[in-house]
Design brief:
Blueprint lengths: L2 E2 L5 E2 L17 H9 L3 H14 L4 H11 L2
């Protein structure tokens, strides 16, 4: 299956987890997870917000660490 971005350009899969800072809202972590697991990025973002609220914010340092460490 071929994927296209909002401009109609073909997206290429790099394989493995990666950050996509060009299309990111903040650091590209949710977008990278969505690409890796082939799910909608909106669902990942909602999941991160809910998990952060339910986990008393413990996900925030994890999110920042992934954003800083991953390429």
């Amino acid at each position: 299956m071929t994927s296209f971005d909002n401009n109609g350009s073909q997206l290429t899969s790099r394989g493995g987890f990666h950050l996509d800072k060009g299309r990111a809202k903040f650091m590209g972590v949710c977008l990278g997870l969505a690409d890796y697991f082939n799910v909608d990025v909106t669902m990942v973002r909602i999941g991160v917000v809910v998990a952060t609220l339910l986990g008393a914010g413990i996900l925030i340092p994890v999110y920042l660490a992934v954003g800083l460490i991953a390429n």
